[in-house]
């Protein structure tokens, strides 16, 4: 900071910063020039592939013959008429909705707890963050072992506390309804830390004066919670839900590792079904069409994000 | 009088105590739920198979003495060390590409481009919402056309597409928080804009640069879908694909080594990530809130 002080003195009489050299160093040229590599990179590897996905989805391309012959909406119709696709679409919606509903409630509770001062808070924070910070594929394989058909530690604990009888060995990943529950549990496990940290950031940004004022007016903790804290949290909770929804809606890692879509293709989500069709079976066009059903949610997310950004800009 | 007062005071103390107990139970429950799988990985990784695969045994106890055989198998009998090296190489190159593109872009958005720059910035940020599951099919075509299938270069090429947008956004925020006087002074002293960026702005942005480095590095390690799609040979896999797909022979899962590998690869990443978590969250929420 010392440098800036002395420099300001030097600046005194000079009208504007000297722009040495030729046109290359002018801000109006330099600005776009510095921005170009990043924008170009993202355009080539996100923008173009997105357009290519649209193009593939109306073609008949496969890995073997990647020619782009136009077939109209055939791929979309074939997708919609497939029962596996319809169940994948339903599953995606169920997984996202149920896990996000659980995550938002649990993460608010967790954030309220983490906001309190207690000994060992740093360690607790680290332990709770683990599932979000570690690679999800590795976390999911840990759960696959915990849900093992014979040696499931989850079942062992349930038997130990007599929720299950000693002879019960539920097949978590072998029965459709249990497999769906398992996938939801892992999604909640994974997104909860992220959501809690976002909400915690919102909690700490609530001005202390407002809480003090409410306390002076005689509001107890519960009243402050429901009438002051939670309403003030809603914008930031929206961010947590927005990112959580997009991540869960489009994730295929958890399903791929836990069940690979099984048993009997009953737990596929759009992303894992697109992978199955497009990459494993090699039907690029059909896979692209399936994946494009993710687009509406992403567009909705983007619009919401822009609205929030606009609100922040105008100071609302 | 004293007696009248003592009742509410004591009940206040009691309710505080109840509050503390509730807090302890809540926190303990969440720690159990979130951290248990990792504890379970650690227990599994050091248990003998005879102990692991016996339904009569209490799974939390070492009924037989702990063993290093799974770790030995992992490091000496599998490609795990190779996957670690692959992952490190990819992540390092992705960090370099990200820095080279995102630093100038972030600076440009912070200082050189006005209103249209802000719109470009938000546009870039929004691409972070476009997920791999929408892009892996077209990108697999692109990778095939470039003859990069089954090679780590495919990942080096594709990963910056998700690190650059967010890192540019983070750096823009960082550069905006540096007083413009600093560079203007340097430019008065004869520096060019780029010279000022290099000699004045970057030295005071070490924290921001470090955040970006860690972020790009950990995101590259965590990535799963592209690595699964583009690469099939075992020797070219990254750790987050190799461990869950390659430590299985037919239907036999090597659970001891699997859990060992998952733990060894997770914990360092998690430590790095946790240290910078608050900065990432600040960047993420800055997208929508001031």
Describe this structure as you would to a colleague.
The complex is a heterodimer of chains A (316) and B (290). Chain A has helices at residues 2-11, 27-57, 74-81, 83-115, 121-133, 136-146, 153-160, 176-204, 208-216, 221-250, 253-258, 270-280, 284-292, 295-313. Chain A is an all-alpha fold and 316 residues long. Chain A has a single domain (74-313), classed as MetI-like fold (Orthogonal Bundle). In chain A, helix 4 (83-115) packs parallel to helix 8 (176-204). Chain A starts with a helix and ends with a helix. Mean pLDDT of chain A is 87; it is low at 1-20. By secondary structure, chain B is mainly α. In chain B, strand 1 (248-249) and strand 2 (252-253) form a beta hairpin. Chain B is globular, with a radius of gyration of 26 Å. The interface between A and B is large, with 115 and 108 residues.
Give me the CATH architecture of the largest domain in chain B, please: Orthogonal Bundle
What is the molecular shape of chain A? Answer: flat
Supply the CATH architecture of chain A: Orthogonal Bundle
Percent helix of chain A: over 70%
Highest CATH level, the class of chain A: Mainly Alpha
E-strand count of chain B:
2
Could you describe the largest sheet of chain B, including whether it forms a barrel? 2 strands, antiparallel
State the fourth-level CATH superfamily of the largest domain in chain B: MetI-like
CATH fold label of the largest domain in chain B = MetI-like fold
């Amino acid at each position: 900071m010392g440098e800036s002080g002395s420099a300001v003195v030097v600046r005194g009489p000079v009208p504007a910063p000297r722009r040495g050299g030729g046109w290359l160093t002018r801000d109006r040229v330099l600005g776009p020039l510095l921005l170009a590599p990043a924008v170009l990179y993202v355009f080539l590897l996100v923008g173009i592939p997105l357009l290519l996905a649209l193009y593939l989805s109306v073609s008949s391309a496969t890995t073997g013959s990647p020619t782009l012959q136009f077939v109209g909406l055939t791929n979309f119709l074939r997708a919609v008429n497939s029962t596996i696709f319809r169940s994948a679409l339903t599953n995606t919606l169920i997984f996202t909705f149920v896990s996000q509903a659980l995550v938002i409630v649990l993460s608010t509770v967790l954030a309220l707890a983490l906001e309190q001062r207690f000994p060992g808070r740093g360690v607790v924070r680290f332990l709770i963050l683990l599932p979000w910070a570690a690679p999800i594929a590795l976390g999911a394989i840990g759960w696959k072992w915990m849900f093992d058909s014979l040696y499931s530690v989850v079942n062992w604990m349930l038997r130990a506390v007599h929720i299950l009888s000693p002879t019960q060995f539920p097949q978590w990943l072998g029965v459709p309804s249990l497999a769906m529950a398992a996938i939801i549990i892992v999604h909640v496990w994974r997104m909860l830390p992220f959501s809690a940290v976002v909400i915690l950031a919102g909690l700490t940004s609530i001005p202390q004066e407002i809480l003090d004022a409410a306390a002076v007016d005689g509001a107890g903790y519960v009243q402050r919670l429901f009438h002051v804290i939670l309403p003030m949290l809603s914008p930031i909770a929206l961010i947590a839900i927005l990112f959580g929804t997009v991540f869960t809606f489009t994730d295929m890692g958890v399903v791929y590792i836990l069940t690979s879509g099984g048993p009997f293709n009953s737990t596929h989500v759009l992303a894992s079904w697109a992978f199955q069709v497009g990459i494993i079976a090699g039907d690029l066009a059909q896979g692209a069409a399936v994946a494009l059903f993710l687009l509406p949610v992403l567009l909705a997310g983007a619009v919401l994000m822009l609205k929030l950004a606009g609100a922040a800009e105008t100071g609302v | 009088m004293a007696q009248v007062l003592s009742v509410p005071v004591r009940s206040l103390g009691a309710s505080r105590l109840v509050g503390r107990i509730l807090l302890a139970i809540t926190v303990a429950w969440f720690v159990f739920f979130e951290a248990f799988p990792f504890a379970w990985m650690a227990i599994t990784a050091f248990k003998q198979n005879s102990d692991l695969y016996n339904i009569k045994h209490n799974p939390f106890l070492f009924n037989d003495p702990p063993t290093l055989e799974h770790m030995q198998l992992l490091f000496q009998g599998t490609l795990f060390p190779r996957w670690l090296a692959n992952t490190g190489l990819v992540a390092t190159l992705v960090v370099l590409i990200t820095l080279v593109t995102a630093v100038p872009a972030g600076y440009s958005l912070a200082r050189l481009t006005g209103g249209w720059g802000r719109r470009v910035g938000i546009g870039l940020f929004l691409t972070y919402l476009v997920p791999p599951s929408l892009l892996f099919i077209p990108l697999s075509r692109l990778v095939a056309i470039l003859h990069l299938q089954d090679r780590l270069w495919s990942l080096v090429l594709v990963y910056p597409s998700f690190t650059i947008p967010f890192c540019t956004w983070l750096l823009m925020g960082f550069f905006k928080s540096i007083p413009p006087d600093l560079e203007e002074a340097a430019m008065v002293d004869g520096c060019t804009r780029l010279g000022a960026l290099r000699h004045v702005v970057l030295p005071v942005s070490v924290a921001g640069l470090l955040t970006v480095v860690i972020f790009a590095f950990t995101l590259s390690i965590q990535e799963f879908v592209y690595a699964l799609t583009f690469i099939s040979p075992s020797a070219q896999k990254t750790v987050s694909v190799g461990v869950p797909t390659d430590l299985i022979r037919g239907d036999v899962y090597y659970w001891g080594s699997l859990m060992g590998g998952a733990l060894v690869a997770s914990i360092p990443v998690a430590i790095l990530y946790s240290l910078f978590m608050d900065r990432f969250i600040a960047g993420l929420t800055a997208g929508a809130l001031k």
